[in-house]
Amino acid sequence: MRAIEQIVSIQDANTVRSVLTARKKGFKTPLSALEEQWNPSKHKIFDEDFRPKKRIKVPTGQYDPITQKPIYKDKKVEPVRIAIPAQKSIVNLTVGFLLMNAVTYKATAHGVDIKKMNDKQQKLYDGIMHCYHDNKMKYFDKRLARTLFKECECAELWYMPTDTEGKLRGEIRVQLLSPSNGDKLYPHFNDFHIMDGFAREYYVYDELGKSELHFDVYTDRLCYQYTNIDGAGWKLISALPHGFTKVPVVYYRQDQAEWEDVQWAIDRVETCISNWGDTNDYFGTPKYFIKGRLEGFAEKGEQGAVFQGGNDASMNVLSWDKSPESVKGEIAYLFNIIYSFTSTADISFENMKTLGSNTSGAAIRLMFTAPYMKADLKTEMFGEMFTRRSNIVANGICNTGVYVKGIDQSVAEQIDFEPVFKPYLPKNDVEMLQLITSSNGGAKSTSNRRAIELNPLNDDPDKVEEEMKSEQKEALAQQAALSGLGSAASGSQSVSNEEEEEE
After folding, report:
1. Please, are residues 290 and 276 in contact by the beta-carbon 8 Å criterion?
2. 322-358 pLDDT, tens per residue?
3. Residue 447, exposed/middle/buried by CB under 10 A (0-12, 13-18, 19+)?
């Protein structure tokens, strides 16, 4: 396989694009179908080929001149169509369990926390955290994960903004690239399955709405920009340094959307619920089957109403017996399949109302084991990608002096960045507080710091620890002051006693 440098060196821009786009692997389901499944208003239940209109016979108000029987005509009526946003529920809950607790970053140098190492390493780490804070990565990560889980691919592009004069603005920014935003993504991997280049195809629109098709290729040093105006063919318009000595892109991919294995069950649930709705429309209000001659009707709203009929007349109320239970049973079974086979927590009101305040932490953890394990497995990919992210930002800081000056690339190479994930798991707060209290008193088995971190009432352990240290210092100072006063008082009493003895 040709390296990315060999490809971009080809003079013909059309060939460059063809080579970089030819080897991309497809997905199980096209993006257009995933978008329809994601949007409830576009579900199959609204497709007339899937759920056609009902054909019924309605009276015309006319009668056959010979038989005097009423004449009917065919009419198509809209059936009940009920869609459920199960896909959104699956994705949002997966994102929540994975990233409800924000990702933190641990940095070590040869296995030692950098806080115990030299000043340059700490400054570089602080610069990276500054960058993450500016880019609001806590929220960006959730948006990125949601995009990946529903579209199967996305990428984060790191870049250095410049002012009108082309000078760096002193910051590093990130942009989310995704198919739903109009981006076609083409990662390029070398023979060792390492991404050595990345291409992106997208449209740029001017003030008048005229579009220009762009194709950007990123290597470890340059960004090659190609354009195709009015379909005239591709042309290279620039090849400029992007400020990094790494490909400034993190590419995310999974083979299928989170709900694809149970899409058939979602379709069936919507069909069952819609059919049930149709049945309710027919039987929700009394309907009568009349045999013989009906001579009189009751008034609307009349109580104790009586229908009058001839000697040969009979009337029966149409009803639907026992069938609803079978429908409810199938719907419940299908929902169980949807939640079980996607390892999604069923947090519906009906399910959660059975949990009381006295439910043990062990029972809660057991109930949410599957979604917790799913989130933990997701960290396998996200951990690798977030590490790459930190290496890219560190590289940019060292190369350009953004955020921190005077640090070369050798400092970044000494540091190992490790993202720390804390998948969400519901807890019994009362039980946790009792456990902390018992473990941190008497026969102590937990450090004060660990007890602070585990306490569900503490949202900022560092701040709480500082406050506790400050309070301890104040208490010791007050104790020392009181002890000094006591000593002084004792001394004064001794002097008085000695004077009395002399007298």
Report:
1. no
2. 567 888 899 999 999 999 999 998 877 676 666 665 6
3. exposed
pLDDT at 136: 97
Q: Residue 27 sits in which domain range?
A: 4-32+85-259+386-420
The Cα 70–Cα 398 span in angstroms is 89
SS3 of 459, please?
Answer: coil
Q: Looking at the domain assignment, is residue 311 inside a domain? A: no
The span from the CA of 248 to the CA of 200, in Å, is 12
Buried b (16+ CB within 10 A) or exposed e, 322-352: eeeeeeeeeeeebbebbbeebbbbbeeeeee
- From 400, 420, 440, give the residue that closes a domain: 420
Tens digit of each residue's pLDDT (9 = 90 or more) over 408-434: 999 999 899 999 999 987 765 555 555
Side chain identity at 250, as an amino acid letter? V
| Number of domains within the chain | 2
Maximum separation of any 2 CA atoms in the chain, in Å: 147
**477 and 399, same domain (yes or no):** no
Contacts of 155 (CB under 8 A, 6+ apart): 176, 177, 178, 183, 185, 187, 198, 200, 249, 250, 251, 252
**Of 403, 420, 437, which residue sits at a domain end?**
420
Dist. CA 281–CA 326, nearest whole Å: 18
- Three-state SS string over 33-63 comes to HHHHHHCHHHCHHHCCCCCCCEEEEEEEEEE
Please tell me whether the overall predicted TM-score, pTM, comes out greater than 0.90 for this model.
Answer: no
Please answer whether residues 220 and 395 qualify as being in contact, where contact means their C-beta atoms are separated by less than 8 angstroms: no
Please, are residues 16 and 7 in contact by the beta-carbon 8 Å criterion?
A: yes
Q: How far apart are CA 496 and CA 503, in angstroms?
A: 11
